[in-house]
Automatic annotation (TrEMBL):
Family matches, as InterPro entries: LigD_pol_dom, MtLigD_Pol-like, NHEJ_LigD
Keywords: Ligase
Protein known as: Non-homologous end-joining DNA ligase
Family annotation (Pfam families): LigD_Prim-Pol
Phylogenetic lineage: Bacteria, Bacillati, Actinomycetota, Actinomycetes, Kitasatosporales
Span of domain DNA ligase D polymerase: 28-279
Gene field: ligD
EC number, UniProt record: 6.5.1.1
Enzyme class: ligase
Native source organism of the sequence: Streptomyces sp. 900129855
Length: 295
């Protein structure tokens, strides 16, 4: 029998709660739902008003993994949806605005991925993102070195950057921005990636060419394009263990070489939120957004 629970007055059928989704640790679907409910206060503000792409892995990361962008069949009528522009024509997507919708979406077993714009202004970017991806034998240690350089370079343009782990191998840099389109922000991000490669040619790569990746950090600037999405803060990732795309302090980034790792599991996140609050909260303050230099 499928358990029925009530969340903020909404009745939800939650299935297969004992199913192991993360084989390395035995982390179950019930624990996934508990994790998302526990971090909802810090996660929801980063999802609000953003159309979601779901990376679904209903049988765990070793099973079928697939992206879902359109509203899934059977979506409750009380879950917010919005029509969003696409090059191939408008589509309707889910927008998670409350705890009940978050638990419903988590029951589908999903990573949450968001664009760098909100539904009210789909042509205007309010986020800038760099995805720092290490090519072995490079690791997150090298990503941290590149992140510090990018932080200082962004600061020179009046833009304050914040960091989070990707939840996989690398690191994400984010900043709140205003006054530019997704195309303009993408062009600016590419200029900085090219500049980083010029300054650190043995460490940085701004092109996706696989043959050039070993030992370098690929600075992926392309996720600023309006059609692209990035793993949301606090989302679980489809890995062997329940790793999280977790916000980190700059002290942790700068000290990464000493510990040689920067990985956080679901069980780590609630204590970190208790200690630090939401390290990415400044991204939600529109008054702190930087202005992207447009050429």
């Amino acid at each position: 029998m499928t358990p029925i629970t009530e969340v903020e007055g909404r009745r939800l059928a939650l299935s297969n709660l004992e199913k192991v989704l993360y084989p390395a640790t035995g982390f179950t679907k019930g624990e996934v739902l508990h994790y998302y409910a526990t971090v909802a206060d810090v996660l929801l503000p980063h999802l609000r008003d953003r159309p979601l792409s779901f990376l679904r892995y209903p049988d765990g990361p070793d099973g079928q993994v697939f992206f879902a962008k359109n509203v899934p069949p059977g979506t409750p009528e009380w879950v917010t949806t919005a029509e969003v522009p696409r090059s191939e024509g408008p589509a309707r997507m889910v927008v998670v605005q409350d705890l009940a919708s978050l638990v419903w979406a988590a029951n589908l077993v999903t990573e949450f991925h968001t664009p760098q714009w909100v539904i009210q202004e789909p042509t205007v970017a309010d986020r800038l993102v760099f995805d720092l991806d290490p090519g072995p034998p490079a690791t997150v240690v090298e990503c941290c070195e590149v992140a510090v350089w990018l932080r200082e370079r962004l600061a020179a343009d009046g833009i304050e950057a914040y960091a989070k782990t990707s939840g996989a191998k690398g690191l994400h840099l984010l900043a709140a921005v205003r006054g530019a389109s997704s195309e303009q922000v993408s062009e600016y991000a590419k200029r900085l990636a090219v500049e980083a490669e010029r300054q650190m040619p043995r460490l940085v790569l701004h092109r996706m060419t696989r043959s050039l990746r070993p030992g370098k950090v690929f600075v992926d600037w392309s996720q600023n394009a309006a059609r692209k999405t990035t793993a949301a803060p606090y989302t679980l990732r489809a890995r062997a263990a329940p790793t999280v795309s977790a916000p980190v302090t700059w002290e942790e980034v700068e000290g990464c070489r000493a510990v040689e790792t920067l990985t956080f599991l679901a069980s780590d996140v609630a204590p970190r939120v208790q200690d630090y609050g939401d390290l990415l909260a400044p991204l939600l303050d529109g008054g702190r957004a930087g202005v992207v230099p447009v050429q």
